[in-house]
Amino acid sequence: MLKKIMLATVTSVFLLLSVAVHAEPVTIVFSCKLNDGSTKNDAMAINARWLKWARATGGTDKITSSFVSTVIGDLGGFMWVDTYPDIATWGKVADADSEFDAEFDEVSTCSSNRMYRGEETMPAK
Fold it and tell me: Could you give phi then psi for residue 87, rounded to 5 degrees?
């Protein structure tokens, strides 16, 4: 399922951004829940190996990934928040075949994802 979401996202993003590739950082956020019997540590162990692979595939150590959980509010889920230095690097990783999809699906179910591009605010002079 995660692979299908990523494929749809890749296709949509590249169609929308085919005119210009921005060198600004991008963040992709997956909304997920742990499967019964799985723990945060299970998910993070897979993610640590995925991050090593993603950095090698993308050719940069500027790729980051965080397990983000709720402190106050609905405690039922978590998010993966992955950042890339630019959309081209994300594209390299997203287009590469990863053996991690099945492992992630064993420990968690992700219902949606979104990609964001932030623009840093500079302090006033």
Answer: -70, -30
* C-alpha Rg value of the chain to the nearest Å: 15
As a whole number of angstroms, the distance between CA 115 and CA 118 comes to 10
The 3-state secondary structure of the chain, one letter per residue:
CHHHHHHHHHHHHHHHCCCCCCCCCEEEEEEEEECCCCCHHHHHHHHHHHHHHHHHHHCCCCCEEEEEECCCCCCCCEEEEEEECCHHHHHHHHHCCCCHHHHHHHHEEEEEEEEEECCCCCCCC
Taking 80 as the threshold, does the pLDDT of residue 90 lie above it? yes
Which single residue is written with the structure tokens 């591009």? Answer: 117
Q: How confident is the model at residue 15 (pLDDT cuts 50, 70, 90)?
A: very low
Q: What is the pLDDT of residue 22?
A: 54
Sign of CA dihedral 38, 41, 46, 51: positive
